[in-house]
TrEMBL record, chain A:
This is WD repeat-containing protein 74. It comes from Xyrichtys novacula. The keyword Amino-acid biosynthesis does not apply. GO terms for cellular component: nucleolus; preribosome, large subunit precursor. GO terms for biological process: ribosomal large subunit biogenesis; RNA metabolic process. Coiled coil: none annotated. Residues 323-380 are annotated as: Disordered. It is found in: Nucleus, Nucleolus. Residues 369-380 have a biased composition (Basic residues). SUPFAM superfamilies: WD40 repeat-like. Isoform 1 interacts (through WDR repeats) with NVL; the interaction is independent of RNA or pre-60S ribosome particles. Isoform 2 does not interact with NVL. Interacts with MTREX; the interaction dissociation in a late stage of rRNA synthesis is required for appropriate maturation of pre-60S particles and depends on the ATPase activity of NVL.
UniProtKB/TrEMBL annotation, chain B:
It is found in: Nucleus, Nucleolus. It comes from the Eukaryota. Keywords: Ribosome biogenesis, rRNA processing. Residues 1-110 are annotated as: Disordered. It comes from Xyrichtys novacula (Pearly razorfish). SUPFAM superfamilies: Class II aaRS ABD-related. GO terms for cellular component: nucleolus; preribosome, large subunit precursor. Residues 152-335 form the Brix domain. GO terms for molecular function: rRNA primary transcript binding. Residues 38-54, 98-110 have a biased composition (Basic and acidic residues). This is Ribosome production factor 1. May be required for ribosome biogenesis. The lineage of its organism: Eukaryota, Metazoa, Chordata, Craniata, Vertebrata. Residues 13-27, 70-97 have a biased composition (Basic residues). GO terms for biological process: maturation of 5.8S rRNA; maturation of LSU-rRNA.
Length: 380, 359
């Protein structure tokens, strides 16, 4: 179990309560749960890394518990109860530092928990119907919340009394009618104070708390269906959004225009995650597939059927195609062997893959690798 | 669990097309060189010459469609067709003779290629022993029905102001589905109808949409938690329009046959249909409702059967018959604006491959 969990580079939480790990280099998927007592109460609603080294996963279930999963051991090590299930499901989960975690539930209570005590250290009320809570990757005690008829709020967990920033609703429309608000997801843009949100009314907004303007500094629209989730790629200046019809698009954050759409999905998107360094985005949703698209040519790179509806997704920050983590001693040997295999097969297929990529000429090394792997699979 | 690689572009097709092009060019060039007055003659000569050489195949540089004279072209085309037909018949005869000569040792007949048996493998095909899928299905929205906790109760309604055919179609559907109630829509919004249905213990809401007096859409909403499926309806034939139909159906609970729902999506749709009918069929009624899926089209038929003797069974269609095609499957009760879709038919993206089926 430990060996397989070390290989996985993509982690997914499903509606049936199973934590799934996928190893793209091995083309294998693993279930991490005891299959004897599956239950819908265990449905995974939130997923995040427990520590910066990415050896621990925090899994938030519907029944109000947060479980710690160790990727080294490949098993759940700890279960703690964080709040009452009657308050609603988790909408956000984040690790503050070594022992503290932040949880947020639908009823709008954001709490900070310490490992040793069952009572929350800090508690703040973010209003009703919270759809999502996200943590800033730079200032780790800064969180943003938002929901239905509950605009974006940015909080500092040190001062839970008052939010740092509260967004104002959009101006009334040309009929002088109030515009409804429904923040579905948000993200902090690195290297600036800005926050990007997507709404249930297919808008994407950028807020800038550093300016006195409390309305969005950029408004964009995509499609005609509710946007469910977004993610920021490593390259910056763009945001990837997904909606309930399974359409994913890259939007430019400078002008608010669509840069390109990612195709191939059949059902609504529930989770999107861009790789922290590579130009790839992973998506999962109601169609039970994990799909990995390249952001450069917008092609589908991987497609994995995972049998249950998927709620959330998490990528590890190491190279996706790389064969497993080098941390474990047991894993490394196998990994090396497999790499050798890959290199061995490469020479044979040199010509064929070249012919295919003649037009592209000089491509990135990674791309080439990918092409070869495909060839290899065909040979198999 | 298996990972599928994205298929590489199909080179073969492209090449074939390329091969064809130069041929045409050549023939065009020849035409250009021929004098305008002598075109017909020249062509005639060409044809004769070729015929003497090889009776069947025309030379690659010649094509019938390039003959300018319509009558002549027609004549030539007929000849060409006859020639081809003759050849085909000869080949057939030859093969049959060979088979007869070989007798029992003859090789088994080849199975004709159809797009169904050439189907692209679908990785979501349900394995009956799979624990995870079994658990997923065992705890889904239909589990209450399959565990025998609820009895189906169906509300059938239409889009606003239905006309002749749609009204009759609804009435006939109500005779097929036991415990079905037909109501006029009275201009009510579906989102307001649904809570009332739930309060009255309906388990299904069925809405038939009509366009120009022809039923063309079906929304099937499972209550109280969904899912909602949207179908295109085509080829509706009411009882009156059927030939050799039996007497009107009785009120017995029919048996249900679900054919070819193999993928995960297909299973969900199959369960959706199965939950329309009561679980215990009354065999004394000898009635069967069939949902047959073929190439993603779902054919509905309603029959009465009879065992004539130990070997022979007779069936009699009772009607109505119609064809359904899935457009979307939405999680939750009907909410086309804010609902989350489990599956949406994306034309030109999903049906790009003719051998790939979704159900």
């Amino acid at each position: 179990m430990g060996d397989s969990s070390r290989l996985c580079s993509v982690w997914l939480g499903s509606e049936t309560g199973i934590l799934k790990g996928v190893s793209l280099s091995r083309k294998q998927a693993f279930n991490f749960c005891n299959t004897s007592h599956l239950s819908r109460d265990q449905e995974v609603r939130a997923l995040c890394w427990g520590d910066p080294a990415e050896s621990e996963l925090l899994v938030g279930s519907v029944d109000g518990t947060v479980k710690t999963f160790s990727t080294e051991k490949g098993s759940f090590t700890e279960t703690r109860r964080c709040g009452d299930p009657s308050e609603g499901c988790f909408t956000g989960l984040a690790a503050l530092d070594g022992s503290r975690i932040i949880t947020c539930v639908e009823s709008g209570t954001v709490r900070v928990w310490r490992e040793d005590s069952s009572e929350p250290v800090t508690e703040l009320d973010a209003g009703k119907n919270v759809c999502r809570m996200r943590q800033s990757s730079v200032h780790r005690n800064k969180v943003a919340t938002g929901g239905k008829e509950n605009g974006l709020k940015i909080w500092d967990l040190e001062e839970p009394k008052k939010p740092l920033f509260t967004a104002k609703n959009l101006r009334d429309d040309w009929l002088d009618l109030r515009r409804p608000q429904w923040v579905r997801d948000m993200a902090f843009i690195p290297d600036s104070d800005k926050v990007v949100t997507c709404t249930g009314y297919h808008q994407v907004h950028v807020f800038d708390p550093s300016t006195p303007q409390r309305r969005p500094v950029l408004e964009a629209e995509y499609g005609e269906y509710p946007l469910t989730t977004l993610s920021l790629p490593a390259s910056g200046n763009t945001v990837v959004v997904g909606n309930t019809h399974g359409q994913i698009a890259m939007l430019d954050l400078r002008k608010g225009v669509v840069r390109g759409c990612l195709k191939g999905l059949a059902g609504g998107v529930r989770g999107l995650h861009c790789h922290p360094s590579q130009p790839v985005v992973a998506s999962c949703g109601l169609d039970r597939f994990l799909r990995i698209h390249s952001l450069e040519d917008r092609k589908l790179q991987h497609k994995v059927y995972l049998k249950s509806r998927l709620n959330c997704i998490l990528l590890s920050s190491r190279d996706l195609e790389e064969a497993g983590g080098a941390k474990g001693e047991g894993g490394t040997e196998e990994v090396k062997e497999e790499e050798d295999e890959v290199w061995d097969t490469m020479e044979q297929v040199e010509e064929t893959s070249k012919r295919k990529n003649t037009e592209e000429g000089e491509e990135e090394e990674q791309q080439k690798k990918k092409g070869k792997k495909k060839r290899k699979k065909e040979q198999d | 669990m298996d990972i599928t690689e994205v298929p590489l572009s199909q080179d073969k097709k492209g090449k074939k097309k390329k091969m064809k092009k130069p041929k045409k060019k050549k023939s065009a060039g020849q035409d250009m060189s021929g004098e305008s007055t002598g075109v017909e003659k020249k062509e005639d000569e060409e044809v004769k010459m070729e015929k003497s050489e090889e009776a069947a195949a025309f030379p690659p540089t010649f094509s019938v469609s390039e003959i300018k004279n319509k009558q002549r072209r027609h004549l030539m085309f007929m000849k060409l067709k006859q020639e081809k037909r003759k050849q085909k018949m000869q080949l057939k005869k030859k093969k049959r003779k060979e088979r007869e000569a070989l007798g029992d040792k003859a090789p088994p007949k080849e199975v004709p290629k159809t797009i169904e048996n050439q189907r692209v493998y679908d990785e979501t095909t349900v394995d009956p022993e799979d624990e995870e899928v079994a658990f997923d299905e065992g705890t889904d929205e239909f589990s209450a029905y399959f565990n025998g906790l609820t009895n189906p109760k169906v509300l059938i309604t239409t889009s606003d102001r239905p006309r002749g055919r749609t009204v009759r179609f609804c009435e006939q559907l109500a005779t097929v589905i036991p415990n079905a109630h037909v109501y006029y829509r009275r201009g009510l919004a579906l989102k307001r109808v649904i809570p009332q249905c739930i309060a009255r213990n309906f388990t299904y809401l069925m809405v038939i949409n009509e366009d120009r007096k022809v039923p063309n859409g079906l929304v099937l909403c499972h209550l109280p938690e969904g899912p909602t499926a949207h179908f295109k309806v085509s080829n509706v034939r009411l009882r009156k329009e059927l030939k050799r139909r039996g007497k009107d159906p009785t009120e017995h609970n029919p048996e249900v046959i679900l054919n070819n729902f193999t993928t995960r999506l297909g299973h969900s749709i199959g369960r959706l249909f199965a939950a329309l009918f009561p679980q215990d069929p009354q065999f004394i009624g000898r009635q069967v409702a069939t949902f047959h899926n073929q190439r993603d089209f779902i054919f509905f038929r309603f029959h009465r059967y009879i065992f004539k003797n130990e070997k022979k069974v007779g069936i009699q269609e009772l009607g109505p018959r119609f064809t359904l095609k899935l457009r979307s499957l939405q999680k939750g009760t009907f909410d086309s604006k804010f609902g989350e879709y489990e599956w949406v038919l994306k034309r030109h993206e999903m049906d790009a491959c003719r051998r790939k089926f979704q159900l």
